[in-house]
Structure formats: structure tokens, C-alpha cells
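haha ok so turns out i had the wrong file open the whole time. this is the CORRECT one, sorry everyone. sequence first:
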Amino acid sequence: MVVQAHLLTGLRLALALPIVIAFARPDFLSAGLVAVLLAVAIASDYFDGVVARRYGTASAGGQLFDHATDCLFVTACSTGAALAGLVPPVLPVLIAVAFSQYVVDSYWLHRRKHLRMSTIGRWNGIGYFVPLVVLAAARLELVPALTPLLTSVARLVAYVLVASTLVSIVDRATAARPGYRQ
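then structure:
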């Protein structure tokens, strides 16, 4: 069953490219298709872990694959949104920096065999999907008068994520290191 969990994670990875292009170039895919693809990607993020835990195949390698895929997905999709001027361009850069720091900190500085999560990092990881969902909803134009408001909300959330990601990076960088004595 580890194959099914990895296939779900791989599906999210495969969905990144069309969604990135759709954010950068709104005429590439219909708004409805973008919303469906994003929903499938988010569902795959939820269910890959459920499947791995249910069948007892969860592993440090699977966790790394899942988190790396999340990072690539949200970084790439945020880049597409940034190219369209919908989110600040620094957001995808900070996502990549924070994830790289997370991996380096976990495996090399703390010498663990699995990722060392933090509370703010976990919430940021979830939060990175929010502007994408809001932007996809705005594109649907179900209530056209709300489209500018939804776009503004997505931008505001993106700026909050820039700030919380900076806090997370500083927090992880200044946290006590192994062997450090106060």
C-alpha cells in the first residue's frame, strides 16, 4: 500500500505544472478546471498520509517525499500567481528558503532520521494553500462583484504568510541547537 500513498503524492506533483501555468496565464485552463485540479491536489495531500498510516507504511522517506512535494507545489503555484501579480514575488522565495532550512535543520543540524517539525512551520505549510484556493475561487466568478474582494483577500493572506514565514525562519535559526547549553 506504500505505492498508493506515493501515487497520491505523485499526483499532486504532476498537477503542479498545469496549475502553475493556469495561475500565470489565466487563459490556459478554465476556472472550473483549475478549481477541480487544485481540489484534487489538496485531497491528495490529505489522503496520502491517511493511506500510509492506515496501512502501516508511513516512513521518514515518505514524509520527506510528501513535504518536498508540498513545498514544490505551493512554491511553484505561488510563483505562477506572483507572475500574474496576484501575490508578492517574495512569497515563493521564502517558502523555498523555509523548507530548505527545515530539511537542513532536521537532518544535518539535529542529525535526525526524520523531519523535525515546528508548530508555526506546520501552520504555514497549511496556510500556503489558502491564497491559491481563494484565487481559484475568485476566478470562478460565482458572484462577479466579489472577485476583486477575493483577489484582495488572497493578496492580504499572502502578505501575512510572508510575515509568518519570516518569523518561522528566524525562530528555527535562533532555536537552541543540539549540545547548546544555556
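Residues 75 and 96 are 7 Å apart (CA to CA).
again sry for the mixup
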